[in-house]
Amino acid sequence: MSHFDHRHTNTRVLLRQGNAPLTNTDITIEHTQHAFGFGNIGFEFVDWIAGPPTGAVERSNHVPTNDMDALATKWLDVFNMATLPFYWRHFEPAPGHPETERLMATARWFTEKGVTVKGHPLLWHTLAPQWLMDLDDATVESTIRDRITRDVTQFAGVIDLWDAINEVVILPVFTAEDNAVTRLAQKKGRVEMVRLAFDTAQAANPNGRFVLNDFDLSEDYEHLIEDCLAAGIRIDAIGLQTHMHQGFRGAEEIWDRMERFSRFGLPLQLTETTLVSGDLMPPHIVDLNDYVVDDWPTTPEGEARQAQNLIDHYTAVFSHPATESLTYWGITDHGAWLGAPCGLLRKDGTAKPGYDAIHDLITRQWTTPTTTQHTSTDGGVDITGFAGTYRITTPHGTTDVTLPAGTHDPVTVTVGE
User: Fold this and answer.
1) CA distance 258 to 262
2) Considering only CA atoms, which of 91, 123, 300 is closest in space to residue 197?
């Protein structure tokens, strides 16, 4: 049995033209979109699409404007899910002045191209606004609720997927910087901070999906999830970060982590993956942010290693039945997190072997080949292939049909008049 069988759809599609079956007709069936979320961040696109920020905060992931058309083409050739930055300190540098229009324009640019957009994150201690520190705890909590309600409501229908709260395991004991979110967490506790984020977001958009996201994939995270579920908090998916600046953890270890978190019966999202194509960060570094170097170049040897690591990582994640998405954290080395050469493109915009490797996986090996079929006397054709969206082209018109994984009752679609 293929280890991708759970990714396949087996569905009979009944084609109709008007009120009659489209019988004995040659049609073309093209797989145009995956059901699985193959994601990347879209941070680099915000300035290009919507202009520079109105606040004084400098962005670190700026890409030269003349390179952006080519970058967009390479991005859209592979990915169908974009994570956009809603870091509160940058998004609302002054109270009451959020960057809503810029992020909305960027989100709409992606959605118009069929890309699912995710907002990251609604609540996080890191990059919390400094102006929160001047407020008492009760006002901090009400301000958090107002922020979540405002953004989830305003973006509903454009962004319906959010990281509700980020890195809760470390939240109450975070010491790198004084911030009002950690201060509130020390009073309320982890579970109540999760409840604050999720309940507020769900009330603002009952149709939204909200993710608990963390880098700490230890038993502490498992215990937090257990406690939250026992407290009646509705979590729609579990986010697992896999930044691997110190080297690929190996397909077996990645699989083991997915196995441990799959026991909750919730979809898993591999939310933040990085693999470097240069020298690895030394293993003694505990907090990745502590590693600072003047230059961290990509190398031919590192690029070959990154490509193989990407193949192994993507294959393991796509193989696991609990996963619904995998987001890579950066398409280019421009402005990459920690200055690492973890992008899929070099700074000059050329593709690394890793880009070519996952392009081949997603668009060739894991995409159902285009076929020509002949409809039966009831207008039916059987579609067996990777779950997702299929474009059916007939002499009378074209239609798209989205087919989930598994075997399903026949689906009826109409083409033409």
Assistant:
1) 6
2) 123
Whole-number Å distance between alpha carbons of 160 and 122:
12
Q: How confident is the model at residue 153 (pLDDT cuts 50, 70, 90)?
A: very high
Nearest to 99 by CA among 108, 109, 86, 83: 86
**Tokens in use for 311?**
């193949």
- For 50-63, the pLDDT digits (tens) are 998 875 444 545 56
- Asked whether the beta carbons of 23 and 296 are under 8 A apart, the reply is no
287 vs 224, 282, 297, CA distance in Å? 21, 11, 21
Domains of the chain and any CATH numbers = 5-25+375-414 (no CATH), 37-365 (3.20.20.80)
Instruction: Read off the tokens for 186.
Output: 């020390």
- Whole-angstrom Cα distance, residue 172 to residue 188? 9
**Residue 18's pLDDT is what?**
87
Neighbours of 215 (CB within 10 A): 17
Nearest to 347 by CA among 362, 330, 363: 330
Q: Rounded to two decimals, what is the model's pTM?
A: 0.95
| pLDDT mean over 190-198 | 98
SS3 of the chain: the string is CCCCHHHEEEEEEEEEECCEECCCCEEEEEEEEECCEEEEECCCHHHHHHCCCCCCCCCCCCCCHHHHHHHHHHHHHHCCEEEEECCHHHHCCCCCCCCHHHHHHHHHHHHCCCCEEEEECCCCCCCCCHHHHHCCHHHHHHHHHHHHHHHHHHHCCCCCEEEEEECCCCHHHCCCCCCHHHHHHHHHCHHHHHHHHHHHHHHHCCCCEEEEEECCCCHHHHHHHHHHHHCCCCCCEEEEEEEECCCCCCHHHHHHHHHHHHCCCCCEEEEEEEECCECCCCCCCCCHHHCCCCCCCECHHHHHHHHHHHHHHHHHHHHCCCEEEEEECCCECCCCHHHCCCCCECCCCCECHHHHHHHHHHHHHCCCCCEEEECCCCCEEEEEEECEEEEEEECCEEEEEEECCEECCCEEEECCC
